[in-house]
From TrEMBL:
It catalyses: 2 GTP = 3',3'-c-di-GMP + 2 diphosphate. Residues 176-312 form the GGDEF domain. The lineage of its organism: Bacteria, Pseudomonadati, Pseudomonadota, Betaproteobacteria, Burkholderiales. Pfam families: GGDEF, PAS_3. This is diguanylate cyclase. PANTHER family: DIGUANYLATE CYCLASE DGCM-RELATED, REGULATORY COMPONENTS OF SENSORY TRANSDUCTION SYSTEM. One of its GO terms (molecular function) is diguanylate cyclase activity. It is an enzyme of class 2 (transferase). It comes from Ideonella dechloratans. CDD domains: GGDEF (cd01949), PAS (cd00130). One of its GO terms (cellular component) is plasma membrane. Residues 85-137 form the PAC domain.
Amino acid sequence: MAEISDLPNDSAVYKTLLESTRAIPWKIDWPTMSFSYIGPQIEPLLGWRQDSWVSANDWASRIHPEDRERVVNFCIAQSQAGVDHEADYRALTQDNGYVWIRDVVHVVRNDQGEVESLVGFMFDISERKKTEEKLLALQKELEALSFKDGLTGIANRRQFDTSLAREWESARHSQQPLSLLLVDVDLFKQYNDLYGHLQGDTCLTEIAQTLRLALVGPRDLVARYGGEEFVLVLPETDAAGAQRVAERCLRLIEKLALPHAQNPHGQRVTVSIGVGTLTPGPGAEPQDALRAVDQQLYRAKQEGRNRIAALV
Ligand SMILES: Nc1nc2c(ncn2[C@@H]2O[C@H](COP(=O)(O)OP(=O)(O)OP(=O)(O)O)[C@@H](O)[C@H]2O)c(=O)[nH]1
């Protein structure tokens, strides 16, 4: 039986071993920037013939254009510095597809310490990349879901809290007015009693989607505040602008015309709206503003519902 120490002279054994791995071995002669070897496994993976890998340029031109500059610059810099390295990139296939590759590179130097050649292995990491991409997409989906109200599909309370904190700071900084609207469905307990809880859910969803239509500014937000209550955040909106949005909400809900036999306002579903506009000064807190707007909502209810009450 051959000893391990016999192997170094046996290049045929090395060649067989190298060409039977899943990883693809290669060697580039550094002074001429040309391939002195690439494993035959490259052809079934990428489609390019083994003898078509002649210069380092053949390698560079078969990298996805979006990855090319980054990878080529990185590999040249590392090689010049004599540092072993690895790079992930999309290699182009002959039939215009691409395969994710991890190229692991070892820099070989001569006795003078000059770079003589690069040797490495290309690994097919497509499956790993696919899993990574799936995980990333799932993570994004989860993140989006964590800011969405499960029933109505609009922003939830958490998103509202985040938005309000951000807009509050922005308004404090710019000294632009910020408006808040609290919208509460009228006599909703009776609605549930009359039509059932499931129908109540549908009603809330329709109202949420309708309120979205009342928004105008790019940063305007409507969120479910809780139960049958919604909140609108209107950055850079003064009292007159907020009043217009509140009136649009009332009109849109009126147009929606959902039946509510026990609502004296036309036997239709209506809402009451509390409105507040302020420019945050030093020491002012979002919770104080919300409390003030809630008082207006209470006033709108007291004064007969299906109306707007605004902080003056
Ligand atoms: N179907 C359904 N009902 C809900 C949901 N969240 C809260 N509610 C109901 O909304 C009703 C709110 O009732 P109240 O706070 O008494 O107010 P209201 O009947 O709308 O009366 P006013 O606000 O005074 O006009 C309660 O009966 C809750 O059960 C929900 O997600 N789905």
